[in-house]
TrEMBL record, chains A, B:
Its cofactor is Zn(2+). One of its GO terms (molecular function) is zinc ion binding. It comes from the Bacteria. Zn(2+) binds at C100, C103, C136, C139. It holds the Pfam family FUR. This is Fur family transcriptional regulator, ferric uptake regulator. The keyword Zinc applies. Keywords: Metal-binding, Zinc. One of its GO terms (biological process) is negative regulation of DNA-templated transcription.
Length: 141, 141
DNA sequence: TTATTTATGCAACAATATTGCATAATCAAG
DNA sequence: CTTGATTATGCAATATTGTTGCATAAATAA
């Protein structure tokens, strides 16, 4: 669990203003061991925050390199905190994601790099997303 | 462009009833060189079809192994036609997808297999999705 | 042709997301 | 600490995407 100082420092280093909503959202995402949907974040930060503000906060964080989207086979967008070196200029999240079909959590496997592929001519890749689905560590007997 | 016979045969071989909506949706997906969202399919088959029927048709097709979902970094679900060997029993779509940041189309790169990764202990993967983003063949100068 | 099964369309609803605008909060300057 | 410029927030209204129940129409099998 990161200290309040850590939260403030992170906001400052990404040139973002300190606000209660931003601190709460960032805290929630840093505390979670798996990616969270907008709804799940909403639940965790309490019902007194406007959903619109939350969406705008998530967009700001994503643009600033604080969090990254986690693709899902469903139509729900999830977010997870980024590695320390991500910035507004560029994201460096080259890890695979794992979705458990039992507990439905999506984990960032930060230690597993996305392997490169050879593309057909004239296709030039800039970013990659790799999502595995199966049974996670917690749900394996 | 597949002939009407091809469409009918495909429906029959997957044990699905012949209906105008199903033929239209399948035709549209087979004709497209990239994955389509529900809205895009709706536009192509004409406004006289109910959106609810379209969603149910897409679900039926997915369950029957006629089409597969294409994950996107956005919150929109897209569909593309499956390879010939997919069935209600199992899908065999092991190819990567490529999203163009210029034209926004998502292509099935059927010739590029998804590379395997080594997972941490007690993670057991059943399915994989690999999405690249960059500039596609059509948009490369 | 008739009977059975299944797909469709409508209504109503739910969940997720976006925009404009007035107000409140943040932060930098003095 | 106070002031003023800038930016975030909250509300209202709206858009988009997807779902469920149910009566009717259509497709297939007998
Ligand atoms: Mn991640
Ligand atoms: Mn595909
Ligand atoms: Zn699990
Ligand atoms: Zn393109």
């Amino acid at each position: 669990m990161p200290s309040p100082d850590r939260i403030s420092q992170t906001l400052t280093s990404h040139e973002l203003r300190q606000t209660p909503v931003r601190r709460a959202v960032l805290q929630v995402l840093l505390d979670s061991s798996y990616a969270l949907s907008g709804h799940e974040i909403e639940e965790r930060i309490g019902a007194d925050t406007d959903r619109i503000t939350l969406y705008r906060t998530l967009k700001t964080f994503e643009d600033s390199g604080l969090i990254h989207r986690v693709v899902d086979t469903s139509d729900i967008v999830r977010y997870a905190s980024c590695s320390i070196e991500c910035s507004a200029h560029e994201h460096f999240d080259n890890h695979v994601h794992f979705k458990c079909t039992n507990c439905h959590h999506i984990y960032c496997l930060n230690q597993v790099a996305i392997p490169a592929v050879t593309l057909p001519a004239k296709f030039e890749a800039k970013t990659r997303d790799y999502l595995l689905a199966g049974v996670c560590r917690e749900c394996t007997p």
